[in-house]
Amino acid sequence: MINSKILLKNGNIIDENGNLEKNLSIYIDNGKIAEISREEEQEGYEVIDCTGLYVTPGFVNLHTHSPMNLLKGIAEDISIDNWFNEKIFPYESKLKTEDVYWGTIIAAAEMINNGVTAFADHYFCQESVYRAVADIGIRGDIAPTIFGLADDYEQQLKNAVSFVEEYRDKNSRIRLRLGPHAPYTCPGDKLKEIVDAAKKLKTGIHIHVSETKEQVEESIRLTGKTPIEVLYESGGFDIDV
């Protein structure tokens, strides 16, 4: 069982405002900071000597596809279209729910090892991502991916809404939202429909916007608007995005 009482002793602490205080001790009870002081060491704590080290608030990774940790390095130095269509999508189509779970576990372990304590994820099989986040103890903001161009778009949206409704209140460390892939893969009224669904759920969206110069140019050619303008006109900035 993980010790519920931990003392980070004699660390140099950087607070949320960037201020530095040296040689302070942090007492953690049941996963929450209970006290920060220079007082004499209290008994009953597992002590971690932080002399000469800096203790900061946890970093936040604002955009991940964590299960893709399993696909590192399989395609380099090619166009993004070829990267997706010739490499990534064929491999992703073979991933099973347990693959997604373990890919997320590995990614979360790497993040924790590098000081990341929260991340925002955008992927498929979000029940597996959710389970991994709950099991490993990191904080997560999870969005099931929705492709407006897919033949099963309506089912994807229905499943995503059901996922948020079912899991949203089960774990205080995990927040949920909808994940439209991008304006160019959710064209026409599809993006607005997803945004409206998020509004009804009282949540936000996680989306790719203007990732490349080519995407911006293609959006202007097809719609007369940049991806940001398309998102704005779909109501995307009326909610958390």
Quick tags:
36% helix, 10 strands, 5-stranded mixed β-sheet, alpha/beta, 241 residues, Urease, subunit C, domain 1, 2 domains, TIM Barrel
Count of discrete domains: 2
Coarse morphology: elongated
Quote the CATH topology of the largest domain. TIM Barrel
Low-pLDDT segments? none
Strand content: 15-25%
Order of helices and strands: EEEEEEHHEHEHEEHHH
Classify the secondary structure makeup into a structural class: alpha/beta
Assembly classification: single chain
Find the count of extended strands (DSSP E, 2+ residues).
10
Tell me about the largest β-sheet: 5 strands, mixed
Tell me which CATH architecture of the largest domain applies here: Alpha-Beta Barrel
Q: What's the mean pLDDT score?
A: 94
Which CATH class of the largest domain?
Alpha Beta
The percent range for helix content is 25-40%
Number of helices: 7
Alpha carbon gap, first and last residue: 38 Å
Taking Cα atoms only, what radius of gyration do you get, to the nearest Å?
Answer: 21 Å
Q: What is the CATH homologous superfamily assignment of the largest domain? A: Metal-dependent hydrolases
